[in-house]
Task: structure prediction
Amino acid sequence: MATFRDLLTAAKAEITEIDTATAAERIAQGALVLDVREPDEYDQGALPSAIHLPRGHLEAQIEAKLLDKRAQVVVYCAGGVRSAFAAKTMADLGYTDVLSVAGGFGKWKDEGRPWKTPVTLTAEQRNRYQRHLLLPEVGVAGQAKLLESKVLMLGAGGLGSPSAMYLAAAGVGTIGIVDMDEVDASNLQRQILHNMDRIGDRKVDSAKKTLTLMNPDVNVVTYDTRLDASNIMDIIAGYDVIVDGADNFPSRYLLNDASVKLGIPVVHGSIFRFEGMVSVFHPLEGPTYRDMVPEPPPAELAPSCAEAGVLGVLPGIVGSIQALEVIKILLGIGEGLIGRILSVDTTDMSFRTFNLRPDPANEVTYANRDRIIVQELEGLCAPGLAH
Result:
């Protein structure tokens, strides 16, 4: 019967083992790093950018963590034993370029090579966000980034409701909400942040109750005020992303100019009857709202939802897409809607994407941010927020 030493010797005979100096070179050249130690070991220190997957979970979870089986992977543990077995297992699973670090993290640290104390989550947070943690694009580091992020909702109405609820559920740490309305019975057909018991309450207060009951990790900051040129810069400063749930042109242009001046991306959504659209206006990376709509149309050509109606479930679709785009921006994953417009027509459930390019005549750009004057549009109705 084989002993542990026999198994280790056999495993090392079938893998490629490297010293810490070679490991550092391979990592600098772009190799992925896999830490197979236990959680308590990992929490005390790890190589920068390491993917953590305890050896006991390797067979069940590695293919979800590392999708490309041809990528070079540097595997380490505390001393080089578990990493050797892990490298052998990965080879059996079809990974073609796996390297085990002799001496492991102990030797790496003793030699003074770079390491860091990883971001950690509480046991309650690990349980709450476990489906996120299983995604290699999110993981613990991504979830911690969400918890540190700040997102501002312009409106707690039809679009703001699903966006805010999904962002709160996802663990976005700070959610600001700007709205000056109170809950009305006519809102409840689509504004799912609110309920019958809160008719007559301020929308920001109702929204805060819903979101904090959903996730106590989230700090909800309320602004029960009309957003205008006198306060918008102070309100939006410091937020990472803004979700535009306004339903009128004055608010949209005001938000555009202020966000461009500060370089804050805006996830725009709009709805009308059975149709909606979403785009991301990122002042540092692509076109903005004024590139899409250089001049506001006459009021008679832009009726509000109160005048034309809207299918109640439509803002749920559009607002959820907005929340998804926010998370992609915060985590830096996927291909967002920067420079693209996603249009949905729910009558035939068709989704279409259109390209949006910067308008050379548009002078409201981040490059010209020092010259931007944030002011109200003249001759148009006052801003409002509810859909």
Notes: The chain is about 35% helix and 15% strand.
